[in-house]
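Appendix B.2, paired examples.
Example (i):
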Amino acid sequence: MQKLTIRILTLLAVLQVGTTCLAEQNLTVMTHDSFNVSKKVISAFERTHQARVIFLKSGDAGAALIQAILAKDAPMADVFFGVDNTFFSRALKADIFIPYDSPLLAGIADHFRLDPSNRLVPVTYGDVCLNYDRQWFTKKGLAPPSSLEDLVKPAYKGLTVVENPATSSPGLAFLLATIAHFGEKGYLDFWQGMRANDTLVANGWEDAYYGHFTAASKGDRPIVVSYASSPPAAVHFSSTPLAEAPTAAVVDNRSAFRQIEFAGILRGTKHPELAGKFIDFLLDVPFQEDVPLQMFVFPVNPAAKLPEVFSRYAVVARDPAEVSPADIEAHRERWLEEWTTVMLR
């Protein structure tokens, strides 16, 4: 009798393990390499939905999207995070996403919601803009730049480092800011002035910021293209407490370009209901409040509270430079070719 009881208990244990394994689903989320989320925040989603989330980091945003498009007939993931407005039209044209009307979208401002069909929903945003080394300008007795026009003045010769828009996301965003600011008839004149004023071109943000920017390296460039959220990052990661941010962002006079990041459910997912729950999770307060110190961008959900370092040191452009996703898609390659001819040839 005792042996029979042990066998029955063992069988019940096996069945229970099997049922648990069947209940747990794997959800694969394709992202760019800069994506990050706190372990406790993602673990809460997994516990709530009896799921395991697998993040598939796939290069920068453009490279990741191209991979997702190429794999549309055999999708590599269930959800994609990281399409921004510079690749927005390309993503929708590829028809790799399915609509999802998250109930949390009702609280998101209309200017973030660029897709009426909700195939792509906004999750984060940030302003790409000039950053400058405050101490450098104070020591030199030179006023820091307050507009794009300042960069081509003789006093600022040899002071700026930008990223190549063909190889860098912030580089492309800054190029778009100049197109919006000066117009198609004037932006190349600005860049010709930038070349004449000894502007340095770096391949990517890391090289520009940590390789040439005086506030973060032994470089000799006190002006860099970065983000409006870079000053709070400089304070947050400082090895010693700081009373003020060592850098400042230039966001006035339509000098900043707003990047909005979107997420969507990939067509062909085997877990559409769970994927929808993950979209809800991305828009809900716990993830939105986690965003600033994980990826140093802003949450789109107005109910999310910003960390103190953001509240004190981050700025948001009141009137960002704007180029529509459709215009970006239609003219991106020509604009890149024209910029390359002016700056690198």
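Example (ii):
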Amino acid sequence: MMKTLAPAPSRAAALPWLSALFLLAATGCGGGGGDSAAAAPAPAPAPGMPTIAAAVNLDDNHQVGVTSTFWVDGDTATGGAGAVVQGVPCAPQIETFHIHTHLSIIVNGVAQAIAANTGIIATPTVDCHYYIHTHDRSGKLHIEAPAAGTFTLGQYFAIWGQPLTTTNVAGITGMPQTIYITENNTVTQFTGDPTTIQMASHRHIAIVLGTPITQVPFFTWTAN
């Protein structure tokens, strides 16, 4: 008994297979040759956060930083003079609620001593303390009020009579600005409106202008 052989495929039927093989070979070899665009380089990683410097005790309220050439002690002419400033009154000193936040302003790597006696009015006609004030050049901001509340860095700068924006810090302009907040042994970078930064017990606020820093200052004190 003879077997019937299937007819050989025609050349026309084989062409699609040959075309597919040719296409696969071309794809595997790079296809368009020199017309392919080079892969874009990966973006550079963001610089690391600064570390926390060794703690410095401020129980003696010593001056921190160099005596600033940018400002003098006390409020400016546009600062608090006894009237309510951004909701913060000036009143006899009250100890019911008393906490401290530390402020550093660092210009090109050099800490500037924060002005003393800001928010303290002592004239023949007005004698009072704003709820937010300084006593010395340690950088400790005293928050003393009849009850606990929310107080911000913007209120302090308004009492001091100094601008606080992303482009102007106490009259220093035209410098890159970075703000770090340190608390609970953790450093974070603040990128919002600096006037909204809340002041909390043992919170450290460092405003860095110009040259970046590798360590943020850190201070301790025994009171709140």
